[in-house]
Design a protein that fits this description.
Helix content is 33%, strand content 4%. The termini are far apart. The chain has 109 residues and is mainly alpha-helical. The protein has three domains: 1-30, no CATH class; 35-72, no CATH class; 77-109, no CATH class.
Length: 109
Amino acid sequence: MQLAKRVAKPIGSTKICECCGFQIENETMSIFCDTVDLSFLGPGLPLYFGFIKASIMFLILLAIVYTTYGLYSNRKGKFCVVLPNGVSLPDGFCSKNIFNENSLVNKVN
């Protein structure tokens, strides 16, 4: 049944699997558990999962900061213009709409 080989905290019981020698009765753990709760697996696993959590938080923070700055600076650009009806754009210019206003093309100059 493979209950003895799953990553779970062993409960103080005497039931041992005949084929592998691990305890059958164990307590399942949440995927969002604290890394200190994994200390029964050794010192490396809590450090590894702590590093993964910190890296994900750092990447999310970095993405938020750079996305906010990029949108702000693209919106401040003055390259795309609003034209009156019936006037066509010369080559090399862009019309101002929500996509061009928030993209890199708006700050070409």
